[in-house]
From TrEMBL:
<dbReference type="InterPro" id="IPR000182">
    <property type="entry name" value="GNAT_dom"/>
</dbReference>
<dbReference type="GO" id="GO:0016746">
    <property type="term" value="F:acyltransferase activity"/>
</dbReference>
<protein>
    <submittedName>
        <fullName>GNAT family N-acetyltransferase</fullName>
        <ecNumber>2.3.-.-</ecNumber>
    </submittedName>
</protein>
<feature type="domain" description="N-acetyltransferase">
    <location>
        <begin position="4"/>
        <end position="151"/>
    </location>
</feature>
<keyword id="KW-0012">Acyltransferase</keyword>
<dbReference type="InterPro" id="IPR016181">
    <property type="entry name" value="Acyl_CoA_acyltransferase"/>
</dbReference>
<dbReference type="Pfam" id="PF13527">
    <property type="entry name" value="Acetyltransf_9"/>
</dbReference>
<dbReference type="InterPro" id="IPR050276">
    <property type="entry name" value="MshD_Acetyltransferase"/>
</dbReference>
<keyword id="KW-0808">Transferase</keyword>
Length: 177
């Protein structure tokens, strides 16, 4: 990997971010549209891009989640989506985005981060099966639904179902596209 800079997004990054997610997900635009909707609703807690030689090559977004029947004082965010241009995958760009994103989440007062993804990949970043912490999810996933506490004892005595923002629910099919 050459010199990659990780920085917060700017308004002028939106087209490049859309294209990164579209290309990373084999032409599907659901993830791109989720990012647009979350940014449009001002629900991006942390949103970072990876820039290499002046070109945006990756993006990660962390947005608020809720844990049913739990106090508002618990700050849990979801890591989704994370994408890297296909020709830049397997070069460590996604790892850099996730590591910087987790650090930024911690700095902004987030207690824990959840992710729905490959356990082998995300365990490298300290994610563990969320059900071990008493957390479920609205998708019914178990092994693939993981959590990373960012503060000591953040999830002590927490139990419930984690829900993502409504912006995750509308897909291309539901939008009639």
């Amino acid at each position: 990997m050459t010199n990659v800079e990780i920085r917060p997004i700017t308004a002028s990054d939106s087209d490049a971010i859309y294209e990164i997610h579209r290309r990373a997900f084999d032409g599907r635009t659901d993830e791109s549209r989720i990012v647009q909707r979350l940014h449009g609703a001002d629900k991006a807690v942390v949103s970072l891009v990876a820039v290499e030689n002046g070109q945006i090559v990756g993006h990660v977004l962390f947005s608020p989640t809720s844990v049913d029947d739990w106090e508002e004082t618990l700050a849990v965010v979801g890591l989704a989506p994370v994408s890297v241009l296909p020709e830049k995958q397997n070069e460590g760009v996604g790892s850099l985005l996730i590591q910087h994103g987790l650090a930024k989440c911690r700095d902004t007062g987030v207690d824990a981060v959840v992710v729905l993804g490959d356990p082998e990949y995300y365990s490298r970043f300290g994610f563990e099966r969320a059900s071990e912490y008493g957390l479920g999810n609205e998708y019914g996933a178990d092994e693939e639904f993981m959590v990373r506490p960012l503060t000591d004892r953040a999830l002590d005595d927490v139990e419930g179902v984690v829900s993502y923002q409504p912006e995750f629910q509308e897909t291309e099919e539901q939008a009639g596209r």
